Structures are given as structure tokens and as C-alpha cells.
Structure prediction request, 1468 residues.
Amino acid sequence: MGNIRSPVDYTTYLQLDKILNSQRLMSEEYGKPAHDEMLFIVIHQVYELWFKQILHELDSVLTLFRSNFVDEKQIGVAVARFHRIIEIQKLLIEQIRILETMTPLDFLEFRGYLTPASGFQSFQFRALEIKLGLLESDRIRFSKEAYHEKFPEDQKEKLLNYQREPSLFDLIQRWLERTPFLKDESFSFVDRYHEAVEIMLEEEERTLESLPIGEEERQQRLQLMSATRKHFQTIFDPEEHEALRKSGRRRISHDALLAALFIHLYRDEPILHLPFQLLSAIVDMDELLSAWRYRHAMMVLRMIGKKVGTGGSAGYQYLKNTSESHRVFNDLVNISTFLIPRTLLPPLPESVRRKLQFHFTVQSDSN
Amino acid sequence: MGNIRSPVDYTTYLQLDKILNSQRLMSEEYGKPAHDEMLFIVIHQVYELWFKQILHELDSVLTLFRSNFVDEKQIGVAVARFHRIIEIQKLLIEQIRILETMTPLDFLEFRGYLTPASGFQSFQFRALEIKLGLLESDRIRFSKEAYHEKFPEDQKEKLLNYQREPSLFDLIQRWLERTPFLKDESFSFVDRYHEAVEIMLEEEERTLESLPIGEEERQQRLQLMSATRKHFQTIFDPEEHEALRKSGRRRISHDALLAALFIHLYRDEPILHLPFQLLSAIVDMDELLSAWRYRHAMMVLRMIGKKVGTGGSAGYQYLKNTSESHRVFNDLVNISTFLIPRTLLPPLPESVRRKLQFHFTVQSDSN
Amino acid sequence: MGNIRSPVDYTTYLQLDKILNSQRLMSEEYGKPAHDEMLFIVIHQVYELWFKQILHELDSVLTLFRSNFVDEKQIGVAVARFHRIIEIQKLLIEQIRILETMTPLDFLEFRGYLTPASGFQSFQFRALEIKLGLLESDRIRFSKEAYHEKFPEDQKEKLLNYQREPSLFDLIQRWLERTPFLKDESFSFVDRYHEAVEIMLEEEERTLESLPIGEEERQQRLQLMSATRKHFQTIFDPEEHEALRKSGRRRISHDALLAALFIHLYRDEPILHLPFQLLSAIVDMDELLSAWRYRHAMMVLRMIGKKVGTGGSAGYQYLKNTSESHRVFNDLVNISTFLIPRTLLPPLPESVRRKLQFHFTVQSDSN
Amino acid sequence: MGNIRSPVDYTTYLQLDKILNSQRLMSEEYGKPAHDEMLFIVIHQVYELWFKQILHELDSVLTLFRSNFVDEKQIGVAVARFHRIIEIQKLLIEQIRILETMTPLDFLEFRGYLTPASGFQSFQFRALEIKLGLLESDRIRFSKEAYHEKFPEDQKEKLLNYQREPSLFDLIQRWLERTPFLKDESFSFVDRYHEAVEIMLEEEERTLESLPIGEEERQQRLQLMSATRKHFQTIFDPEEHEALRKSGRRRISHDALLAALFIHLYRDEPILHLPFQLLSAIVDMDELLSAWRYRHAMMVLRMIGKKVGTGGSAGYQYLKNTSESHRVFNDLVNISTFLIPRTLLPPLPESVRRKLQFHFTVQSDSN
Prediction:
């Protein structure tokens, strides 16, 4: 096949005839050309190109994790691809600065012609949210209609299909649940961890007692400390954990949460280095998506104030709210709540270490 | 005088003997040296140095605006200094990345030794908030005590004094109120603006009617449009404006708001170029301070989860809330809500243009 | 006309069917799909979209400056558009980080299929260089052929046409030459400036004499000081200036250089505020283009080492060299060499100030 | 010990009384206060604080690598600390933006008072260069004196001591030389790699022959290709390598270079993941230091032109030259020149894999 190819040149390879001829200003169509509409089109096209790239990376990782065994080498690949997504996300946030060189007055010059087009109709962005694991039930609604009603039939079909496939959340949860080290004839992670937490809390209480602070403040702090104690209970007691899940305040399974905690606590073990980087990268992506929404909301606020978005939505408020509530991996973010000082960490027995080695590397050779 | 000075060298000039010998690790004092505590100290010292610089710039601008006349040259100086503050603020946000290289586990290694020290005790940061115009009554409380009770007597005294002095908000408001162009024998800005807004809204309503959308969506949009109409009413009608002020939803005076709107609408007039840059820079500073608080909150969430801050506060939630509610210049941000397309803008009569010229430049020569 | 338009939706407006279907992986065509080729294509398409936007802004400014009179309002527009270009340039530099997530090994996987396509064939980038003012004779050659021989006939024709049109350098030079204030019955800028420079240099020499340094160092410094004195001579003496032009070490005309210096020295005069911002923005663009080339060269070095580029060029060395020598506005950068402390600056007589006012604003009303 | 400590507060802990009272403006001493001198002092103090932090991290890694065995866990620590240095370096570069808000005119206002203080007297920066591995003989001289003559006796003594201790370059080289896998009864890395390179080069030559390009260009490319072939020879032939070392064009030992190449080529092997990250981080640090010097030079150019630096040096040119020639790890950067496509890579035999495992992890247990 290769030998029949003619050599490419830059313009052909990048299909620049298409890319650079896809900007049609509506303001020109209406006979009132607005200089800044070009920027508006170009920046959104750039956003969509980057979304395509992000989906290219994410899809490849989802494929990796759909297999029953994921070896260390593959985790390394996943981490590298997530780091690429992260770099792209950082750029997407910085890119808002460019749009901000357009003043509200300049935007108003052509904004009227865009109705009812709206960023809510970005198919790729919805696809991204779904593939990360955003549930339809967790979406903030901006009208009575479901979000997918905004899309033409074929795109709607695709989005509903994506919702049925296992998301990154699902696959990571399953991968975590399979980490086989929590219990052993000679070592129970939960028990040893429980003991360490007790020591830490008691120490903190002793410190509090010796602080030269007023009675009111001491009471206030004691109250906070008791809240902390209760919070730890939710990881020791599977029933409390389930209660949180039912109430919608936690989503991940108990086994997966314990595994993620284990990886966080023993991240310095070389064999857990990549698994920890994987979880970290996922939290980074989640956080950056959240930061992008927030930054985007701020920009909208400055550009159009609290007016209605071009698609008829109450733009700013909607975007600002999704910034927090469309986060998918809160449970991983919140793991920091359960960390304890390294010095209190029970040492990992050699038997567990060997098991980990086997799980992450040798096993996969049989693959 | 110059000839009695001995020449300086780099180390002496920068007083590096003091700067570089001001890091004492508490973890070392307690006999358990934690490598990462150095970073914790250094980064906070850097933050405080930058706060000092920000206050140096802000104070110099406050002094300028305390005078009765502020000429164009001085506005230029103010804009340049605010732009410097803005660059520093951007850096302060980026700097969080460095702190994030410290893991929660590493932080827990020395966190216990810091109690009860807390970032809430940053005198300079409180001073900055006050000088910008944050009212004590608008502060989110994190305990029953007033925020200044956390400070030693002399610092508390200073903070209370700052609260009594005119803040940037006060001075900018007064400066805006003095802009003398809103009314003229031949031109009334408010009236002409009101007419233009009517034309814009009617046009938008006509567009909405012709859109091929369902009845439900049309009703929803009509409702939003009627909300927009009501919102404009709050700037036309001084009484509605006052009602908003009393309810705490608006802070700026009606005259100042109109002047700021005028400056935004006619920003392309060269004489309004610097006044507009001034208002923009203020909004930028406000937004960046808000972004810093938000980013800081996210970092705290990741570092210590929803645990209690070192000063006993519920760190994350407090920081996140202040991000929005400690903003001082919301009224300026919201001006974008009142903008209209440039093409609908009534032309500025020559008489007004001349008055502006006089107000911003000639007048001050008599100073 | 508006009523015959059907309303747009997001996908149609942005022509996403074309944008998102313009990625064809050569490695797939050859039957050996390389995951990272997608990134390679997408990032270059994004670069080209941004180049299109930069040209859109630059062209609009060139049109403004082709007219005989440029009023203050138009300078304001030019500055705003250059600031947008600057923000885009900053992003283009940051964007390299994303390409750096591709390792050399991954690049080698599909690099062979791209021959002979090469970034040297970017028509838009060449157009940008020409429109800024890069002369063909100043281009570093990477082969015996002229750079435009790399392009198909129609593109080559266009590039040669651009070379014949006045560039930003030409237009800015002409605009500077027209600034009418250098001489006046009561004020000669050059003479007063010359006097001030003499005072400054004498003061510096006196300081040097009083420094407690060794004889060798003193001699060395005296030598440097004499070089400084000679350097100033090149601006006082039009003949020395012309000699530098002939030797290729200076490009700008003597009148334009003096005008630019005047604007730099009196930038605090409100009427010179925008002209100064204009010159600054041009220097920023020049510097950022240079920084981009440098950063790009570093990336190429890391990616392919000192091997040959895909287009057959010795990539790294060529890019690194152009970073410095393809700069167009060196003369504006070097103006800082001629600055003197503000306190030594001769005050501007009222007559000159009035003339400036007339030149930049009133005059244009007759336009 | 802990119980005798009194609790700290924020101001005491950070020693803010010292930090915030270490700014004495020379311009004030001379009776002509210059507003911008504060920025000049503060930004340099911030730089020095960050240099202190960088040295804190670097010293801790040097200590790790001074030991005879460095296990995987320790490599992980080193990588994390280098990543922190990298984040700091990025900030140091961005920080220049803040200094650029000071105009040359403002700088000239107090510049005269600083003579002869100069950034060349930064003890910490010199220490950093030495500890990374910059040789005194490779330093660009800016006067006849050795660089350390600029320092007071005690600092000079320290710098000379640092020069005698093993630098990061020395320690990394030794660590690389110890990687025990290059030869084996059944596998010789160099031989297999040599074969792969031959295949690659032959393929490239065949491709070149089939390209529809002119004869002149073909000759030019053939020439470049022959240069590539010669370049590879320098890694196959230890004698050619030694010749390059003698001429000063290569610094690293042949064994270390081969080991580094091996790590680059087989970076996807989990056991080589951290060693590869280590080498990458070192190259990043080297590159960022170079970028900082370059950016710094550009800023100086804009600020003072080609005038003499405050310390009497020809500032811009010196800084620009050091940007390239003070790089320490060029040999690691140039490794990309020797990479080959992953598909041509000879597979690693199980025996070698096991040896690596042993070298990087098990061995250290006996430590």
C-alpha cells in the first residue's frame, strides 16, 4: 500500500484548504461585517479540535482498561496520555485570555446573528463528559428537556450509546476493586490503618488540650474534631459508606475506595508509583475541567453579564454551577481526608509487596 | 549627599543575611526534621513579599485619588501600577502549582507542629482586602469573634484604622460621581441611552418571534427576556437602584454607576481610553483575587480534604465561599449587563467631548 | 436580508463537519497506525488557525496605516488588535508543551511517512513574516533556492506580491516620520536631548572615578563608557546613522528613529500614551515571535536532535538562527539604549504639546 | 522536647518582622525616592528565596546519589524533588513579566545608586551552577578576574569547595556507568542497536531515492544523510567518542552515554520508568535554566539596551551567551539524535529484564 502513495506536502497533509476555508461570518451574511466575529469562530474551532484530540486520548485509555488485565506498562501508557490531556486542558484555560481581548461591545455587534447556536450544542464536549462518567441524573438541567434533545437524531443516538458503555469512572472502579492486597493471612490493611488513625486522633486531641486558647474556641475545635472522627467512621464501616452512596454523597464502591486509599498511602512503593500517578492524573483532569468551567463562567459574566446565553440559557449561573456539580471523581479528591502522616503508616509486609509485584507485572505476561 | 554613601554590594543591598536566615523549621525544633517544611516556609515568605509590593502600589494609587483633581497623566500612572499588581496576582496563582508538589502525606509530617499558626493571621492580606474596600459586615465569619481579634493589639489597631480611611472603592466612586457629562443643555446621556435600549429589546423580541422553536422554549425565553427588561429598569429608575442598595445587592451610587456605564459605552473616545483602562484594571484585580481564593481553596481541598485548617477553621469551605462573596467591585463587573451594541450607541455631541477633554486634562493644569 | 436566513446551529456555524473530518493519518494509510500522529496533525491545524487569526488582525491594522492620517482613535484600535495578537503568540509558545508530550520514539514511528512535508511550507507563516517587514535579503537560506520556490505557483505569486506591498515596518516608519514636533521656533528636541545626555554621561564618569575599585577594572569600565559615548553619537549625527544603515546594522530612517525616541521619552504625556503603547506592542510581537522560534528550536532539538528536518533542512540550527536574525524591529528594541533618567528630561513646551494634540486628534476630524 | 515549645503564630513562624523589614531604598537614602525601586528589591529577594529552595532540593538529591546504591524508591524521591525545582524554574521565568512592568525610564531613576552591586554577585546562583556541574573552565569570562574574585573571602572559599565536591553531573554519570545490563552471554545491547540503526539508515536512503525531487536537492540531502551516518559512528566507536571528549564537544563517559541511551530506548519497561523520568527531569532543569538566562537577557536588552550592567559587565551579551554555553547536560539532550523507531528496537531478553529488576530494587534491600 505504502508504495503507491505520492509524497505529501504540508498544505495537503494538514488539509488546510478545508481548515482555513471554514470561517463564514454571519455578520457578513447579514451585510454588517463585524471584525471580531472571526476570532469567535476561530477560537471555537480550535476548542473543538482540542476536544477531538482529548477524545482520541481518552478513548485509547478506555480501550486499555476494558481488558481484564492491565499491566504496569499499560498503566504507564495511560498515565502518559492523561498527562497529555492535562497539558491540553491547561491550554484551554489559558486560551480564554484570547477571547477576553474581545470586548462586550464588540461581541454585541454580531451576537444577535448567532441565535440560537450555543456552546451547549457541542457534541464532543457532551461526549467527553459522558465518557469520563457524568451521569445524566447528575446533570444540572437548564430546561425541562433532557440535554440530548438539543442534538440532531444521529448525534443524540450516539450520546445515548455512550451513556450505556462503561465510563472511565466505571473502569477505574473495577480496576481498583481487583487490586488484591487488602487482606492476607498475616496483614489486614483496614485493621492496621484503623489503629494508626486512632493514634493520630488521640494525639491531636492531646495537642488541642495543651493549646493556650479560650474556652469558646476550644469547644468549637472539639466539635470539629468529633466531626473528623465521624468522617473516618464512614470508611471503616461499610454500612455507613453504603448510606452515603444511597444519599448520593459518595459514588465509588467501598472496595474501590479502600484500594485507592491504599495506593495513596503506599505511593512511595515503586510498584505503586504508576497506579498512584494514574489516580492523580484523573483528579487533575477532573479539577482542570472544573477550573475551565469556572473560568469560562467568569468570562461569560464579564462578556454578557447575567443576560441569557445565545442558546437561551441563563449562561453564567449554569456554567458556574456545573463547575462544581459536574465533577465526576469527587471520591478520589476526598481521599486526602483519610490520609495519615507517613510516620504512623504500618509497614507493608514482604508478602503483600510480592503479591503486588505479581498483580501488576507478572500476571499480565500470561495475557 | 551621594558622596558620603559607601558603594553597595548585592548581598548587602538585598539584606540577604536577613532574608536567607529567616527559615526555622518547627519540625527540626521538635527533633523530627521534615524536608518539605522548607518549601512551606519559603513559599509563604514569598507570598508576603509580594503582598508588600501590592500594598506599595495600591497605597500610591490611593494617595493619588485622595486629591480633588486627578488628571489624565495620573490616571495613566494608576493604570500602570494596577497592571503591575495584576501581573503579580497572576504569578501568585501560578505559584500554587509549586505548593502542589508537596503531597498531603508530606504535609502531614509537620502540619501538627504549626498549630495554631494560620494564613488567616496574614496582616497584609487583611490590609489589602480593607484597602480595596471589603466591609467588615461583608466578611464571612469563620468564628464568633471578629476577624481582627486574631491579631495582636498593634496590628488590630492598624486594621481598624484602615477601615476608617477611604478605600479604593470609595475613592473610585467619588471620582466617577464627579465626571461631568451626564447632562447638558443639548444632550442627556440617560435619555438617549434609554431610547437605544428600547430599540435593542424590541429587536430581540422580534427575532425571538421568528425563531422556529417549540412553544415551551419560546415561553421560557420570553420569561428570561422580561427579566432582562426589569433588570434594565434598575438603572433607569433611581428608586429601584436605591432599593437594590438597601437590600445589599448593589453597593455603588447611582451617579457613579451611570458614569461607569458611560465610560464603558464610549471607551473608544480617546479621552475615555485611560478611564476605561482604569475600570478594567480594577475589575481584573477583583477577578484575580477571586480566582486566587478559588484556586487556593481547591489546593487546600486536595491537601487536607475537608479537615480543619491549622488555625482551626474549616479551611476549604471558608476559602471557597470568600472567593465569591469577598469581591468588592461586583457592580463594575455587572456593567456588562447594561451594554448595548455599538451601532445603537447615540453619537457624542462635540460639546460633551470638549467638556471631557477639559475635565480630564486642562482642569488639572490649574492644580 | 436578515429574514431570509435560517437560524444556525453550533455545528453548522463552526463548519465542524469539515474541521473535524480533516485528519487523515499517513501512518494509517501505510497500514501502521501511530497513535500520536493525530496530535501532530491537530496541533499543526490549530497553529494554522491561529496564524489565520493573526493575519486577520494584522491586515486590518495595515489597512488603517495605509491612510494618510491616523487619528488617536485608530491608534487605539491598532493597539487593541496587536494586544490580541500578543495573547495569541503567548499561547502559541505555551502550546509547544503539548507537542512535547510526544516522545522522540513516538515521533519516529510516523516521521518517515511525512517526507517531504515540512513546516517551511507554511504559506501563512511566510506571509506573516513578509507583512511584518522581513526582507527577502535578510532571510537565512537553508538551501540554494529562494524560500518561495518551496511553494506552488499561486502561493509563490501571492508571497512575491506581499513583498511588494508596504509592510508594517514601512508603514510605521512613515507614520513616525510624520510626527511634527521635533523642531519648533522655541524648542529643538535633538538639541535639548543632546544636552541632557552630556549631563548624564559626565555624572556617570564622576561616579566611576569615586568607586573604590582596582585600576584594571576602572580601565575596563572607562572603555565601556567610551563605547557608550560613541553609541550616542550615532543618533546625534545623521551621517553616522546613515553609515550604520548602509552596513545593515540599522534599518530605520533617522527621522523615524528620533520620533520613536521622542515618544519613548515623553510617554507619560497623555497624548503620547497610545503612540507609545503602539510601539511597545510592536516590540512585544517581535520579541514573542523570536521567543517562539527559539522555543520551537529547543523542542526540535529535543525531539529529533541535530538530524535533518522532514523537509530536508538542518532543522534545529536553522530555527535557532532565525530566532535572532529574522527580527524586524531591532531598531525599536534598541531605543532603550538611548533613554535617559526622567529627571534629566527637558520639559515639553506648551506649544509642542498643543501641536501634538492637533496632530493626533483634531487633524483627523477633517478626514 | 515538643512539650516545651510555645505555640507559634503566623508572623513569628515566618519571621515576617525580618522578611518585611529588609527593603531599604537607596534612592531614598540619596533623598530622591524612586517608587519602582521597591519592586526591584522585592523581586530580587524573591529570586533569592527561590534559589535557597532550589538548593535545598538539589542538595538533598546529591546526598542520595553520593551513596553507593540508589534504589528505585530513592530515584522516585529524586524525581519528585527535581519536578519541584522545575515548577520553581517555570515560575522564575514567568516572574520576569513583573519586572517588565518597570519601564527603562523608571529604572534609570535609581539605577545609578546601585553601582557596583550586580546580579553577578549572587552567591546562591553561582553555587547552583557549580552543584549542577558547570566547570570553571567552561564559564564565559566577563573580565580577566576569575568569577569568584567578585565574592568576599568566606563566600569565595565556599564556592571553591563546592567545585571540589562531586556535582550532579559527576554523580549521575557514575550512577549511569553502574547500570549493569549492556552485555550478557546472550545479549549485547550495542551490537543489536548497531544492527537496528543500519536498517533504519538504509530504509531512509531508499526513501530518498524514490522521492520526486530535483538532483540538487537530492545531493544536498545525501550529504546530510552521510553526516548522520558519521554521527552514529561516534557512539559505536569508543575512540571517536574519546576524540570528541578531548575536543570538548562531548563530556560524558562512553559507558554512561550508552546507559543513558539504553534507558531512553527502553523507557517503556516499567523498571526503567523512573530512571527515564530522572534523566528527563535533569534535561528539563538544564533547559529551563537556559531559557531563564535567555529570557533574562532579552529583558535586560529591553531595559538597558546594550549598555553596561550595574556591575560593569556588558550585561545583555554576556547573559545571552551563557544561555547556551553554561548548559551542563548537553550530552543528555543530544541523546535524541541516537534514537530509533520503536518498531526497530530489539526486544529485551528476559535475562536482562531480571537483572534490571535486581539492580534497581532487590539490591538496595541489602543496603
